[in-house]
UniProtKB/TrEMBL annotation:
<dbReference type="InterPro" id="IPR028081">
    <property type="entry name" value="Leu-bd"/>
</dbReference>
<keyword id="KW-0732">Signal</keyword>
<dbReference type="Pfam" id="PF13458">
    <property type="entry name" value="Peripla_BP_6"/>
</dbReference>
<keyword id="KW-0449">Lipoprotein</keyword>
<protein>
    <submittedName>
        <fullName>Lipoprotein</fullName>
    </submittedName>
</protein>
<dbReference type="InterPro" id="IPR028082">
    <property type="entry name" value="Peripla_BP_I"/>
</dbReference>
<feature type="domain" description="Leucine-binding protein">
    <location>
        <begin position="5"/>
        <end position="317"/>
    </location>
</feature>
<comment type="similarity">
    <text>Belongs to the leucine-binding protein family.</text>
</comment>
Amino acid sequence: MPAFARAYARWVNAAGGLNGRKIQVLTCNDHNDTVAAAKCARRAVKEHAVAVVGSYSQHSDAFFPHLEGAGIPYIGGYGVTNAEFTSPLSYPVNGGQPSLLAGLGKELATSCGPVSLVRPDTIAGDALPTMLDAGLTAGGHAEAADQPAPEDATEYATQAETALAHATDGGTGTKSAAGGQGNGAGKGCVVTALGDRTSTFMDSFRRTRADHPEVRTATVLGSVDQSVIDAAGAGAGPFEGAYVTGWYPEVSDPAWAPMKKVISEAAFSDTRIDPADTGVQTTWIAYTVFRQAVESLAGGDVTAGTVRGALDDGLRITTGGLTPTLRWQFSDRLASIGFPRLVNAEVTLQTVRQGRLVAAKKGFVDTTKTLQNADVS
């Protein structure tokens, strides 16, 4: 994400900047640490940043107060914390983990027996079961078995065994799909949402699952990509046939052509930038928002306040079909469940076919109504 942000700045600046102004990109690594996240936010304030664009952090409680105190807008975060959907200075471009899991649950409800969810044992991870269950119950399925797991483990044998036990017999030795666990033909499903630890979990799960090839897997983009699928055995691995929900169209969609042009013209030989990476894609969309906000100022002062003002005044952002038109209001449709800034609850459905991640259906699935029925008490 930082590498692409720098490439984007080079590309824009080579063409004269935005309304004649050059972009200066500052990056800061919070090392997944609360203290470091706060330090990064204080640096943004000290450097008079006009926006934090295309970022990822699990420690919103540490950095948002600093950004809010200085009035700096947070554009296009990764959607991993609830604060991204509640702060009045947050302008999310996707529905984060809530929409991904709600959409996935709705799809699995019609094809799975007992469902297990393996997710991080963190504050952010604690919110995930509610969202998956919202999708499952909307489809008439029982709630998933919640399996918290350390996000920094080097192996997950215990969690894999527990998840598999529930997926094969509902955790009781007797339950099946016919006993109310789901609408499928008894084939259990294990959902993984462990972020970059998903590949580590799958190493453990692949060995544990050897005697139960009927158990299917499912996950969300951000926890898996094509490289993870390849490492897990591609078409012969546990991801074959899995459903995967994402925020955006698959990378082969023509709508990504402008982003790929930036990469080819400004990234040179930087192999860190993968156009299929969800973080890179989110950063591209975040800068699309920032660019249109600056252009709407028509040459006026570009400050944190003016950028925020443009977005707050109802500016409609188009992304070339990568998302619906984006427009942020003080309180949107999902305010009733505590997500007033979540304006894009649409997801795409993909599947792993012959070892390749491909579109399972065309277009987007809107999870707004599913999320509105989520029990967030």
